C-alpha cells in the first residue's frame, strides 16, 4: 500500500525536507547510491513454460510486439467529512480505525486491490507481497501469445483528438496529452526539444535493465505463477475535501479515470453545512447540493474530452447507519431524485451515473451495498475505453528502469536524465517523439507527473506522492 499517512515522525521530516529542497532548487537530486537487495527464492510451481514460449515472452519485455494494459484510477472526491477515506479503506481491505482523520491533500492507495480480467472478481492484494516491478512484468506476461497482434509494434487502440466519440488507431506519437489550451499557446522552449547525445548528457545515468537482468526477473515471475491470473490494477486517489486543497486537485484529474463523488446521505441535499464559508466567488449558502455541483463541474472542466461520456461520475451516499432502518429506502429515493433534479439541465448529464442508487454504511464490511458498489465500479471500469487498450512493448524497458529508481527511493528526475536513461538502454531506445508521448501517457495513468509546458517540462516527478507533498507545501506552508 502506498499512502502519505503511514510515515513515522523521522520519515515524515525527511520527506518534508526533500519537498522543501525541491521547491528551493527546482533541480533533480543526485542519484541515490546503488543498492542491491537480496531477493528471496520464488516458489517453484508446476506446469513449466516451454523454452519457445519463454523466448516469445522475453521478446515482449525487450520491446517486441504489444500488450493489453489494465490500469484504472478511481478518483474519490466530494465534500469534507463525508467518509471518503473510510470508504476507500473498506474497498481496499484496510482496517478502519475509530475516530476521524482528515485527508491531508490527497492520499494514494496503490497495490491493494484489482479486478480479475476473466471473472471480473474483486481481488484484494496482500500489501507485503506488492512489488511495483513485478506489476510491470505481470501485465506484459499475462497477455497470451494468441492475443498478441504481431503487426502492433508502435500502434495501439486510442482515440484521436479530432474524433472524441469513438475509437481510432494512432501511433505512439499521437497520444492525447493533458495540456490545457493556455499551456499549448505558450511559446515553446526550444532547448528542451533538442535531442541530446550521450556525450552532451555527461553519462550521469546507468542502465539497470540489461537483457540478462530482464530475463532473470522474468523467470522469477514465471516461477511464481502470478502472471497466470490476469488481474488489472485499481489505484485509488482519495481527495481531501477541505477548501484549502480544492485549487490543487485539478492538477491530477484525467479522462483515464473513474470518479466517485461521495456525499452524506443522512443530510438533506439543501441543508446548510454549518460553520463553513461558501466557495470563493460564490454567494450561495453552502449545502451538499452545492458541493455536488462543484465537484461535477470541476471534473468535467479539467478532464480532456477524448471519448463521449468519459469520464464517468458515480454518486455514492454514505452514513446509512444514521438513518432509521425503516426509512432507508425512502431516503435513498429522495436523495437520488434530488440529484436528478439538480442536474436535469446540466450539459454533462451523460457523464453521470445515477443507477444503481448506492447508499452505504462505509464502516460496515458486511453491508450488502458495498458489494453493489464494487460491482458498479467493476462494470464501469470494464466499460471504460482505456481499460485493456493495446500498448507497445517498446516502452516496457524504460518503465522498468523508472520503477527500479522509485524502488531505490528516487522521486524526481530531470528531463535530461530521462533522455539519457532512454538513450543508454541496452534493450530498447525510444525516439524523441515516442519518449515525449511515453511521458504523457504515464502521466495520464498517474504513474508519473509530467507537464509539457515551457516552465515545467525540464523535470519529471517519477513518484506522484512527491507532487502531492509539493502542492500541500504551497498551500499550507509546511
UniProtKB/TrEMBL annotation:
Matching Gene3D superfamilies: P-loop containing nucleotide triphosphate hydrolases, ROC domain from the Parkinson's disease-associated leucine-rich repeat kinase 2
InterPro entries: NOL4/NOL4L, P-loop_NTPase
Polar residues: bias regions: 25-39
Name the record gives this protein: Uncharacterized protein
Superkingdom of the organism of origin: Eukaryota
PANTHER family: DEATH DOMAIN-CONTAINING PROTEIN
Ranges of Basic and acidic residues composition bias in the record: 7-24
Amino acid at each position: 500500500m502506498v499512502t502519505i499517512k503511514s510515515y513515522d515522525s523521522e520519515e515524515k521530516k525527511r520527506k518534508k525536507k526533500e519537498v522543501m529542497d525541491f521547491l528551493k532548487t527546482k533541480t533533480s537530486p543526485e542519484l541515490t547510491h546503488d543498492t542491491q537487495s537480496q531477493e528471496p527464492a520464488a516458489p517453484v510451481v508446476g506446469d513449466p513454460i516451454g523454452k519457445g514460449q519463454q523466448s516469445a515472452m522475453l521478446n515482449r519485455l525487450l520491446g517486441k510486439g504489444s500488450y493489453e494494459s489494465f490500469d484504472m484510477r478511481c478518483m474519490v472526491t466530494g465534500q469534507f467529512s463525508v467518509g471518503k477515506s473510510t470508504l476507500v479503506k473498506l474497498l481496499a481491505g484496510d482496517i478502519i480505525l475509530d475516530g476521524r482523520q482528515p485527508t491531508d491533500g490527497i492520499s494514494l492507495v496503490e497495490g491493494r486491490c484489482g479486478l480479475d480480467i476473466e471473472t471480473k472478481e474483486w481481488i484484494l492484494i496482500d500489501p507485503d507481497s506488492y512489488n511495483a516491478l513485478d506489476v510491470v512484468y505481470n501485465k506484459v506476461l499475462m497477455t497470451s501469445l494468441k492475443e498478441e497482434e504481431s503487426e502492433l509494434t508502435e500502434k495501439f487502440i486510442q482515440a484521436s483528438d479530432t474524433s472524441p466519440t469513438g475509437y481510432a488507431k494512432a501511433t505512439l506519437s499521437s497520444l492525447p496529452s493533458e495540456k490545457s489550451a493556455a499551456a499549448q499557446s505558450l511559446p515553446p522552449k526550444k532547448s528542451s526539444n533538442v535531442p541530446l547525445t550521450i556525450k552532451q548528457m555527461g553519462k550521469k545515468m546507468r542502465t539497470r535493465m540489461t537483457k540478462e537482468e530482464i530475463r532473470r526477473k522474468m523467470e522469477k515471475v514465471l516461477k511464481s505463477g502470478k502472471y497466470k491470473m490476469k488481474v488489472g490494477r485499481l489505484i485509488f486517489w482519495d481527495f481531501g475535501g477541505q477548501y484549502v486543497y480544492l485549487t490543487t486537485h485539478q492538477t491530477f484529474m484525467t479522462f483515464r479515470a473513474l470518479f466517485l463523488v461521495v456525499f452524506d446521505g443522512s443530510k438533506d441535499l439543501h441543508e446548510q453545512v454549518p460553520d463553513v464559508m461558501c466557495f470563493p466567488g460564490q454567494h450561495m449558502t453552502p449545502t451538499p447540493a452545492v458541493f455536488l455541483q462543484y465537484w461535477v463541474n470541476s471534473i468535467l472542466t479539467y478532464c480532456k474530452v477524448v471519448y463521449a461520456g468519459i469520464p464517468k461520475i458515480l454518486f455514492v451516499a454514505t452514513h446509512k447507519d444514521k438513518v432509521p432502518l425503516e426509512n432507508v429506502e425512502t431516503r435513498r429515493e429522495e436523495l437520488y431524485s434530488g440529484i436528478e433534479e439538480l442536474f436535469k439541465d446540466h450539459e454533462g448529464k451523460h457523464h453521470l451515473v445515477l443507477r444503481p442508487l448506492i447508499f452505504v454504511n462505509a464502516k460496515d464490511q458486511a453491508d450488502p451495498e458495498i458489494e453493489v458498489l464494487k460491482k458498479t465500479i467493476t462494470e464501469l471500469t470494464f466499460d471504460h475505453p482505456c481499460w485493456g487498450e493495446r500498448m507497445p512493448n517498446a516502452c516496457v524497458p524504460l518503465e522498468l528502469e523508472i520503477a527500479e529508481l522509485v524502488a531505490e527511493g528516487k522521486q524526481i528526475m530531470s528531463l535530461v536524465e530521462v533522455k539519457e536513461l532512454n538513450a543508454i538502454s541496452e534493450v530498447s531506445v525510444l525516439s524523441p517523439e515516442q519518449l515525449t508521448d511515453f511521458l504523457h501517457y504515464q502521466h495520464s495513468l498517474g504513474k508519473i507527473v509530467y507537464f509539457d509546458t515551457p516552465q515545467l517540462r525540464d523535470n519529471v516527478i517519477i513518484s506522484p506522492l512527491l507532487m502531492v507533498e509539493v502542492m500541500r507545501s504551497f498551500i499550507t506552508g509546511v
